[in-house]
Design goal:
8% of the residues lie in helices and 41% in strands. By secondary structure, the protein is mainly beta.
Length: 901
């Protein structure tokens, strides 16, 4: 009877993670396992009822691994499983040597990991010996399949070299082991096409940072750069690209949020041949769940016509997690434009999307509409879909709310290309309601009254996560089922047309498998990030149909300024259909052409080539070759878009000699840097020979004293646009100086030869005046033997430069430090009493260091007392302990409930 007074742990809607789930051999597999007085019996059941970021705490006793699915649950990183707890002590602390938690059936390769998680490991027994025997070539491990790099493999008879599939073939797989810094899990993904080089990239979030992978050659991807970050289950990434008129080239940045206390990480994507760098970690929001950018095309990540792109931060640590908006006027330091100062937890935004409407709804439903339409902001608010008018980036006006049956956690969604429907994901309804994969489809023909008009149910229990629309296909990351593709010709009744199972072990409603998908690359290849196994590049083969395929006849065309251009659009098949097209401004603006958008139509049995007429506008300016883009969208009647569905148009001025510019307006160098090369580029054309001179001008840095450099001449022959370099040598003196600078300027006899960025400031950072960083570790602590221990540290730099971190053990029994080059590291305490000392060394870019240390005292268990033969004592002790802790009054039970949450 006293046990019925045990404490409950209701999950908070906006904080659906970072909670404990409890397991004991005496438990029962029912409920959600979040009551420490009513634990579940098995780890697998607890994992299936956990949320991302929860931890499974396992009480002493014996457990077994009987399948690959069990093994993945025990060793998972998104929902960690820890042994060494006591039911009697209510799971208050991990003490693996006192509360021995035995697990049998463990393959040798996983024995050390599970031991570090607090388990007493009985290695490979008969249960798994055949499945994991390295000597038995007849057995093929699904886990090994996920862990190892996979090469291109077509989907034949439902199988792509071990992965279940339909109409989706494997081009390449980059496993977690191939990424730098040994990430233990992956999370979200986005894509990027560099409009300077035309190369395609995947940008993947990892538990300990972000990596960029060149996928231009999809069967041989290559990691080109990585940045480290704090350990976090969650990272979300978006990209913004724009044409810089001063540099005469495209510039791009990636923006990454995380639930860790890291802020918004802004990553420079402008020198991908040589890697990536962090340009800023903006801490206006120290943590956030998601990021979204409105007003851009999601293939090129550039602004759409007449729209101003903006960053939106979702689920931050401020204002209840209500969405906030930021200007991209300075892409390296974002400025706040909107925040809900009265935001409360009920206003929490988990994710967002947006669309611009220009039809009757802009007048009848919107409040702030302009000549360029109404920006409709879709807020996935955990409980419902909320629709806002956010045309004015300084305010948001609520228009309507959409709800649906069996709602558990309104997670994310996307809109159809006709802008009439929204597909909504609920992340927890499969788990909590016992449903198969379920999507809810809303009609938004009335923005004030979104109406549920359809539900799609999948063939498995796997949870749905994120999805995006391209043409009439919906590409969805489906967790344990991998990637699922739907035909949304009729959005109210989607039909499955393909899938690729990146997690071939099972199809349960847990948080394993595909986290994110990006379907917008110009090549048409699909990027998938898998929590357990890394990056997959998939070929989409779902597009065949009787109505027809639609595409441009070429991926790029050119036209002389002032001339008209006839752009061909091809169609196969015999069905009637139509397709929309719209212009995306590039270095050429809308003012350079007479065309914005339109529609092409075909009747039944018609597959004739259709044409888009583009008229360019002449002017009297001497300009570089300018570019814009035309996008096909919203094919009707089951027709599909194939590649190329994005067209690059080059508008050629009469003069195509190009312009000479520096690649940047400022270069920062260290005084210790010796020789420096400064790039000079010819952009926008290569006709004719060009000659420029360059001249150094002393500032606070003096020529001959701080630098050695000579004025000179650069020449480009006719047809040549190769980047050239100007060399300078730095003089490293022993004087303590302030930051110094000098200027380098280009000159030409004809001013039209030079672009806007014809000078560059060279900033010299002095090593003698550089101040060392500061390393800080947490307070000394006591831990139990074999307990999982987190080493928390941080670093700061007076010059706000990037820092390197290194944890080292300097005394005590040797342990293995995980993530030793991260501010937050971890280790498993030894099984004997000892005192361990660790140091954190923080190093700045000049090599100056700062060190702090932390002492960890390991407490080993006392010898067990003689057995107590007075039967029933343990039960009485448990009851007495619960009475003391919780009492029997209603108030004290309520208090206990709060303590256990």
């Amino acid at each position: 009877m006293i046990l019925t007074l045990g404490c409950s742990q209701d999950v908070q809607a906006h904080a659906e993670h970072d909670k404990a789930r409890f397991v004991a051999t005496t438990g029962h597999d029912q409920g959600t396992c979040n009551n420490r007085f009513r634990p579940c019996k098995t780890v697998s059941f607890a994992v299936k009822n956990a949320n991302k970021g929860d931890t499974i705490l396992v009480a002493q006793g014996q457990y077994s691994i009987k399948s690959e699915q069990d093994l993945l649950y025990f060793t998972g990183q998104i929902v960690p499983v820890l042994g060494g707890f006591s039911l009697i002590e209510q799971y208050q602390g991990q003490n693996p040597d006192t509360y021995q938690t035995t697990v049998t059936g463990v393959p040798v390769a996983y024995a050390q990991q599970l031991s570090q998680q607090g388990f007493h490991v009985i290695r490979d027994t008969k249960a798994l010996s055949k499945s994991y025997s390295s000597n038995d070539s007849r057995q093929f491990s699904k886990i090994k399949l996920m862990q190892n790099k996979q090469v291109s493999s077509p989907c034949i008879n439902g199988n792509a070299d071990g992965f279940a599939c339909e109409n989706m073939s494997l081009l390449a797989h980059v496993p977690l082991a191939d990424f730098p810094n040994s990430p233990s899990a992956a999370n979200d993904i986005w894509g990027h096409v560099d409009l300077n080089s035309k190369k395609e990239y995947a940008i993947i979030g990892l538990k300990n940072g972000v990596s960029v992978v060149d996928v231009t050659s999809p069967t041989s991807p290559a990691v080109v750069g990585s940045v480290q970050g704090l350990s976090s289950t969650w990272r979300d990434i978006k990209v913004y690209q724009y044409f810089d008129a001063a540099l005469l080239r495209w510039q791009a940045y990636a923006y990454s949020t995380t639930e860790a206390n890291e802020g918004l990480t802004i990553i420079d994507l402008n020198d991908l041949e040589n890697g990536i760098t962090v340009v800023n970690r903006q801490t206006t929001d120290r943590s956030a769940h998601n990021i979204y950018i409105s007003g851009i095309d999601y293939t090129l990540n550039i602004a759409t016509a007449n729209q101003t792109p903006a960053v939106h931060i979702l689920g931050s640590n401020q204002y209840g997690g209500a969405f906030r908006s930021y200007s991209l006027g300075d892409p390296e330091t974002l400025g706040t434009t909107y925040r809900n100062l009265q935001g409360k937890p009920k206003d929490y935004s988990h994710d967002a999307s947006s669309l611009v409407v220009k039809d009757a709804r802009a007048q009848t439903d919107c409040i702030q509409t302009s000549n360029n339409g109404c920006l409709v902001f879709l807020d996935f608010n955990e409980d419902s879909l909320i629709i806002w008018d956010h045309t004015d980036k300084n305010q948001a006006i609520r228009l309507g709310t959409g709800t649906y049956p069996n709602a558990e956690y309104t997670h994310s969604g996307w809109w159809t290309e006709d802008k009439q429907f929204v597909i909504v994901h609920d992340e927890l309804d499969e788990q909590r309601r016992g449903l198969n994969t379920t999507l809810n489809i809303f009609d938004i023909s009335s923005l004030s009254s979104p109406t549920l008009v359809g539900t799609w149910t999948g063939p498995t229990r796997a949870s749905d996560h994120n999805g995006f629309v391209r043409g009439n296909r919906y590409y969805m990351s489906n967790y344990e089922r991998g990637l699922t593709v739907l035909d949304i010709t009729d959005p109210s009744t989607p039909l499955e047309v393909g899938f690729f199972d990146t997690y071939p072990v099972s199809n349960n409603a847990t948080f394993n498998g595909a986290w994110g998908v990006y379907p917008f690359l110009p090549s048409g290849n699909i990027l998938v990030s898998d929590i357990n196994s890394g990056l997959y590049i998939i070929q989409d083969q779902t597009l065949a149909n009787e109505t027809g395929n639609i595409a441009f006849s070429a991926s790029q065309v050119s036209v002389n300024e002032g001339d008209n251009l006839n752009i061909e659009v091809l169609k196969t098949g015999i069905g009637a259909t139509s397709v929309g097209y719209e212009v995306l401004p590039g270095s050429a603006g809308i003012e350079d052409i007479i065309l914005t958008s339109g529609e092409l139509t075909w009747a039944n049995n018609d597959n004739q080539t259709q044409s888009i007429q583009l008229q360019t506008t002449p002017d009297a300016l001497d300009e570089i070759t300018e570019t814009l883009f035309i996008r096909l969208f919203d094919p009707k009647n089951s027709a599909t878009l194939v590649q190329p569905s994005m067209l690059k148009v080059s508008i050629i001025d009469a003069l195509q000699q190009g312009k000479i510019v520096f690649a940047t307006n400022e270069i920062k160098v260290k005084e210790t840097g010796s020789n420096i090369q400064i790039p000079v580029t010819r952009q926008g054309g290569s006709d004719g020979a060009l000659t420029v001179t360059y001249e150094f001008t002393s500032g606070s840095a003096i020529l001959g004293e701080d630098v050695t450099a000579s004025n000179g001449t650069l020449e480009w022959p006719d047809g040549n646009s190769t980047t050239q370099y100007i060399n300078i040598s730095l003089i490293n003196d022993n004087e303590t100086e302030i930051q110094e600078s000098l200027q380098l300027t280009l000159q030409a006899n004809e001013t039209q030869v030079l672009g806007q960025q014809s000078s560059v400031d060279i900033i010299i950072r002095d090593d003698e005046s550089n101040q060392p960083p500061t390393a800080t570790t947490a307070d000394d602590i006591e831990v139990n033997s074999r307990q999982n221990v987190v080493l928390n540290g941080s670093g700061s730099d007076p010059e706000v430069q990037p820092l390197n971190y290194q944890w080292q053990q300097i005394s005590g029994s040797n342990v293995t430090i995980n993530n030793a080059n991260n501010p937050q590291a971890s280790f498993t305490a030894p099984n004997t009493a000892s005192t361990l000392t660790f140091s954190l060394t923080v190093t700045d870019d000049f090599g100056l260091i700062s060190t702090d240390s932390i002492v960890i005292t390991v407490i080993a268990p006392n010898p067990e007392p003689p057995p107590n033969n007075s039967g029933g004592g343990s039960v009485f002790g448990l009851i007495l302990l619960m009475l003391i802790r919780c009492g029997i009054s209603r108030k004290s039970v309520e208090k206990c409930s709060n303590q256990t949450q």
